[in-house]
Amino acid sequence: QVQLVESGGGLVQAGDSRRLSCAASGGTFSFYAIGWFRQASGKEREFVTAISWSGDRTYSADSVKGRFTISRDNAKNTVYLQMNSLEPEDTAVYYCALTKGTPSPRARYDYWGQGTQVTVSS
């Protein structure tokens, strides 16, 4: 059973940067594509970005393209989400999730972390 733990969330100001981490344990991490999702208060969860198992393919939502970058270190069983130029609209709980499918919002994500809160003040 794969377990995921997100970290790195917190309170930041608009324009700041923040890096989130997603650490995996209990499974063969490198066989999975990884996605980041977020859910703002009162809104549905939305896809943010995803990366293939090898790290050679990524897919990002238009809202974060050019600002957020996903990367992974399979040796450390960790995926990162580098967030730059943060905006108040980025305020949400951020979740990482694993899929055996392609790194896209349409894949079925089987394992989820508990989430980490990111709050961006204006």
Topology:
Elements: E1 3-7, E2 10-13, E3 18-25, E4 33-39, E5 46-51, E6 58-60, E7 68-73, E8 78-83, E9 92-99, E10 111-112, E11 116-121
Parallel strand pairs: 2-11
Antiparallel strand pairs: 1-3, 3-8, 4-5, 4-9, 5-6, 7-8, 9-10, 9-11
Describe the protein in words.
The chain has strands at residues 3-7, 10-13, 18-25, 33-39, 46-51, 58-60, 68-73, 78-83, 92-99, 111-112, 116-121. With 122 residues, the protein is mainly β. Strands 2, 4, 5, 6, 9, 10 and 11 form a seven-stranded mixed β-sheet that branches. Strands 1-3-8-7 form a four-stranded antiparallel β-sheet, with no helix packed on it. The chain is globular, with a radius of gyration of 13 Å.
Overall morphology: globular
The largest sheet, given as strand count, sense and whether it forms a barrel, is: 7 strands, mixed
- Parts with pLDDT < 50 across at least 5 consecutive residues: none
Order of helices and strands: EEEEEEEEEEE
What's the number of helices? Answer: 0
Distance between the ends: 40 Å
Percent range of helical residues? under 10%
What's the number of extended β-strand segments? 11
Radius of gyration (Å): 13 Å
Percent of residues in beta strands?
Answer: over 45%
Average pLDDT: 95
User: Oligomerization state of this entry?
Assistant: single chain
